[in-house]
Amino acid sequence: MDFCGKCSYNKNGKGPALDAGGRKQRSVKILILGAQERYEKYMPALPLIRQQELVFLNKAASEKEILAAGADAEILFADAIMRIPGSLIEKMPNLKLIQSEGVGFNGFDLETAKRRGIYVCNNRGCNSGAVAEQAIFLMLALLRGGMTGDRAVRQGRQMEVKEQAMVAGISELGDCSVGLYGFGDIARATAERLRGFGSEVFYYSLHRKSEEEEKQYHVTYLPKEELTARCDFVSLHCAVTDQTRELANAAFFASMKASACLINTARGDLVDNDALRAAILSGAIAGAGLDVLSPEPVSKDHPLLTMPAPYCDRMVLSPHVGGITEGSFRRAHLHMWRNAEKIVDGHRPDAIVNGL
Q1: Which residue among the candidates 50, 267, 314, 331 is catalytic per the annotation?
Q2: How far apart are alpha carbons 39 and 93 in whole angstroms?
């Protein structure tokens, strides 16, 4: 288990940390549930950090271990896919901020935190460009047969597969219509990048955007039923709620074109695994590109990992790496520590997700 009691980071400079008014900042305990090496690698040069007591624990730590190490912490940094239950929050009397290391916060008990006046924050927008790149990578990998082509060349079957491709045809991304289901930061970044390919881009969201915003991102609004029926790629870009959990279900796939593919770089819980498996096996849709699966970590017997040949080749999977670029981590960690600084100084943090 990673553990560190009081950690001093003198590489950030000498002398006491001062607030905006030139006063010495107070010291608080910050409990960090995540790899110490990663936090040290991306730690920004903020004087505040030298003054704080940083306690690191592995994200697999039990509630008992967490409380033993940091029940008195005022700030909690946690991996985006962790569970931070109400039972833990209730036993941390000094807690003022729960900060996700990423964008997600599905496992955090927002209501308990809100009731106790504890801010829950994420790093909205820090990885939007990176995840947009991953979504487009999955589209291109499906269009170009990236996995099967690589395997064929390694097996000495290059010309065989090339001849097959010339007969079957390869579509360019610019000739495809892409439907963005949800239109937050990542969807906007995806739309911006798709413009360079020349794709026709549509979107659906609960609330239609302004005409100015649609023009800015070169997108056209469609109701969700029209979006799924019309587009060659349907890319999921929405949060997991009671309304969106398993939104990509049997009816959803039945509404898509048989030649269309699903892309998911958001959350695995948005997809009904058994329904997606059945849709690919039956030919209801052509395939899927997934950076996220549920549950995570993914087991070998997952229904989408046990597809028989040749159907398994109609899927491209990646290990939830869309948002973990170095640039994303640098932006996220700077924002996290800025939020910690605000709490230490008695100010309101940014990117609050629990309605406080």
Answers
A1: 267
A2: 25
pLDDT digits (tens, 9 = 90+) for 110-143: 999 999 999 999 999 999 999 999 999 999 999 9
Terminal CA-CA length for the chain? 34
Q: Residue 44 domain-assigned?
A: yes
Q: How far apart are CA 127 and CA 124, in angstroms?
A: 8
Question: Is 154 in the same domain as 264?
Answer: yes
Does residue 296 carry a catalytic annotation? yes
Query: Which pTM value belongs to this model?
Result: 0.84
Q: Does any domain span residue 58? A: yes
Domain CATH code at residue 60: 3.40.50.720
Beta strands (DSSP E) in the chain are 29-33, 53-57, 75-78, 97-100, 119-121, 177-181, 200-204, 220-221, 233-236, 261-264, 287-290, 315-317
> 320: left (phi > 0), else alpha (psi -120 to 50), else beta?
left
Domain of residue 178 covers: 128-317
Read off the pLDDT of each residue in 205-226 and give the average, rounded to a whole number.
97
For 113, left (φ over 0), alpha (ψ -120 to 50), or beta? alpha
With cut-offs at 50, 70 and 90, classify the pLDDT of residue 81. confident
Pair 174, 65 in one domain: no
How far is C-alpha 164 from the chain's CA centre?
A: 36
- 204 and 260: one domain? yes
Q: Within 10 A of 207 (CB to CB), how many other CB atoms are there?
A: 5
Q: In angstroms, rounded to a whole number, what is the distance separating the alpha carbons of residues 248 and 238?
A: 12
Say whether 267 is catalytic.
Answer: yes
CA distance 189 to 130: 9
Phi/psi for 176 (5° steps) reads -105, 150
Among 90, 116, 296, 330, which one carries the catalytic annotation? 296
Q: What is the pLDDT of residue 134?
A: 98
Same domain, yes or no: 115 and 134: no
* Count of structural domains within the chain: 2
Residues 159, 228 within the same domain? yes
